[in-house]
Design brief:
Among the domains are: about 140 residues, Uridine Diphospho-n-acetylenolpyruvylglucosamine Reductase, domain 3 (2-Layer Sandwich), CATH 3.30.465; about 200 residues, FAD-linked oxidases, C-terminal domain (Vanillyl-alcohol Oxidase, Chain A, domain 3, 3-Layer(aba) Sandwich). The chain is about 40% helix and about 15% strand. A hairpin with a 4-residue loop joins strand 8 and strand 9. The radius of gyration is 24 Å and the shape is globular. The structure holds flavin-adenine dinucleotide (FAD). The site of flavin-adenine dinucleotide (FAD) has 32 residues, from helix 2, helix 6 and strand 10. The site of flavin-adenine dinucleotide has 32 residues, from helix 2, helix 6 and strand 10. One of its GO terms (cellular component) is mitochondrion.
């Protein structure tokens, strides 16, 4: 058993974040998905996150250590007061952490403990510490961005890629911790599938474990890797992961318009059931298409109708062409018009960009607005009901919004635009009703963005009290002091009771 404190002692350096207001234990990613401008990138935050990761792990480990030794001394240096649920949502204060740092300095050589930013960078971050293997897998650090990783594979001439594709700035650690997916999920599934072979994790008590070895399969016990997928950093800090890669195949893009969302969805269901080579199939509502025109970065003016963006994939251009022809015939049956299939790679990239720019084009609809991005997911056949009811609700609320959806998975994202506090409050109510509707349709409060703080209150309704209690039991067992991401994921005691779905009229 390797304790983290042991590891750092051997390395002769302990790095802690001095600048962090609530030093260290919050692992970033508040899941408050608001965006203020096109230029705003998550990159800087990501760098800080990865830089602080080592410090965070140590801080948390230290917190556990300090809480334990303090308990023995009858004086708690950390604020570990509990809610009736047994979990608390309080972070250590700056004073708590300063005290803990000084205690750590007493335990070790004082020079071995540092809060220096450069030490944090050197010990907490490695830019290129990953290496493809002959087995189409790769060992990497949690701070690596999936896009950088795929770029690096391309530059090295390795015809493989990691197919989970959430936001461009997302990192492997965050992606695993949210159980992410993206436009490719319809072909490759999600982080909850088989893409993560193992993770190395620092547990709240400082112990470092690796969940399993690198072999493709294992039936040795239950899958402890999965415990950390979607745990939102509440059970441990992932410090390394072995991920599977997929063959990089030629792709192409087509776009087609429909009279309405129902027709588009029915076409998607038939396309999916044909088993043709589809990598992505994305629904963009008429408002998104209008926004793309307003944004003005597209190579064309789009008909402002509900549209499907389809990415074909196949081992040869001929197989792609064949898939495209099958899809062209299917969409005709559902009154699809204007089917446009890219003839060159550049054309395909241009078309796809109009889908990928959803956040920025959406924000262009209301100058100076901010956007609340949220997602829900339902069985595919129920998506039209959800979309219609939600659109109707949004229209009545007076909020401007665009919708894009990973329609092949029944997952859609709404971008709600607001400028004032009043509008923000209206958005909050709209999101609440959207979630209630998704649950009523046998869906989930979040298909991929995660629960975070804002959606904890829906977990009991969605999963049932028994399942939530099981989650809490695991949390309490691994992290009895609730040191890791307190306040995230698990509902508070007063949220841990079933409340029947509300309808828009009584909210
Ligand atoms: C424009 C936009 C589009 C998006 N599209 C998609 C999409 O298509 N699909 C999708 O799935 N998501 C999407 N998202 C959401 C987001 O990209 C994903 O949730 C992503 O997986 C988050 O990764 P991150 O690195 O940003 O994690 P963060 O937001 O930094 O963190 C997420 C959670 O993981 C925890 N965490 C981070 N690193 C670690 C670690 N090493 N160990 C333990 N816990 C850790 C954090 O504490 C936090 O609780 C989108 C977001 C935006 C803004």
């Amino acid at each position: 058993m390797t304790s983290l404190l042991g590891v750092v002692a051997r390395r002769r350096i302990i790095a802690l974040s001095r600048s962090s207001k609530h030093a260290g234990v919050s692992l970033g990613g508040s899941r408050n998905n608001t965006h203020s401008s096109a230029g705003r990138q998550a990159t800087a935050r990501r760098t800080v996150n990865t830089t602080l990761l080592f410090g965070c792990a140590l801080s948390a480990s230290l917190g556990y250590y300090a809480a334990n030794s303090a308990a023995a001394r009858q004086s708690a240096p950390l604020n570990v007061s509990k809610t009736p649920s047994g979990l608390n949502d309080q972070y250590g204060t700056l004073e708590d952490f300063q005290l803990a740092i000084s205690q750590l300095r007493q335990e070790f050589d004082p020079d071995a403990v540092t809060t220096d930013a450069e030490d944090l960078r050197v010990h907490g971050y490695s830019e290129n510490d990953y290496h493809p293997e002959d087995d189409s897998d790769l060992v990497c650090q949690p701070g690596v961005h999936w896009m950088h990783l795929n770029d690096a594979l391309k530059k090295k001439g390795i015809p493989l890629f990691f197919p989970l594709d959430p936001a461009p700035g997302a990192t492997i650690g965050g992606m695993i911790s949210t159980g992410c997916s993206g436009t490719n999920a319809v072909r490759y599934g999600t982080a909850k599938g088989e893409w993560i072979l193992n993770v190395t994790v620092v547990l709240p008590n400082g112990e470092v474990i690796k969940t399993r070895r690198r072999s493709r399969k294992s039936s040795a016990g239950f899958d402890t890797t999965k415990l950390f997928i979607g745990a939102e950093g509440t059970l441990g800090i992932i410090t390394e992961a072995t991920i599977r890669l997929a063959p990089l195949m030629p792709t192409s893009v087509a776009v087609v318009q429909f009279p309405d969302v129902r027709q588009a969805t029915q076409a998607v269901i038939e396309v999916m059931n044909k088993g043709v080579g589809i990598q992505c199939i994305e629904l963009c509502d008429s408002e998104h298409m209008r926004a793309t025109n307003v944004y003005g970065m597209s190579s064309r003016k789009w008909p402002e109708k509900d549209s499907l963006f389809i990415k074909f994939q196949g081992p040869t251009p001929r197989s792609i062409q064949e898939s495209a022809e099958i899809v062209r015939e299917i969409v005709k049956k559902y009154d699809g018009t204007g089917f446009e299939h890219a003839r060159t790679e550049k054309e395909a990239a241009d078309l796809w960009m109009d889908r990928k720019n959803a956040l920025y084009s959406g924000l262009a609809l209301v100058e100076g607005s901010r956007g609340w991005s949220t997602d829900v997911c339902v069985p595919v056949s129920r998506l039209p009901d959800l979309v219609y009811q939600t659109k109707d609700d949004i229209q009545k609320s007076g909020i401007v919004s665009t919708m894009v959806g990973h329609v092949g998975d029944g997952n859609f994202h709404a971008l709600l635009l607001f400028k004032t506090d009043e509008e923000l409050e209206t958005c909050r109510h709209v999101v609440h009703r959207m979630v209630e509707r998704a649950l009523a349709l046998d869906g989930t409060c979040t298909g991929e963005h995660g629960v975070g703080i804002g959606k904890r209150k829906y977990l009991v309704d969605e999963l049932g009290e028994g399942t939530v209690e099981l989650m809490k039991t695991i949390k309490r067992t691994l992290d009895p002091y609730n040191l890791f991401n307190p306040g995230k994921l698990y509902p508070d005691a007063d949220q841990s009771k079933f409340h029947p779905s509300v309808t828009p009229s009584n909210d």
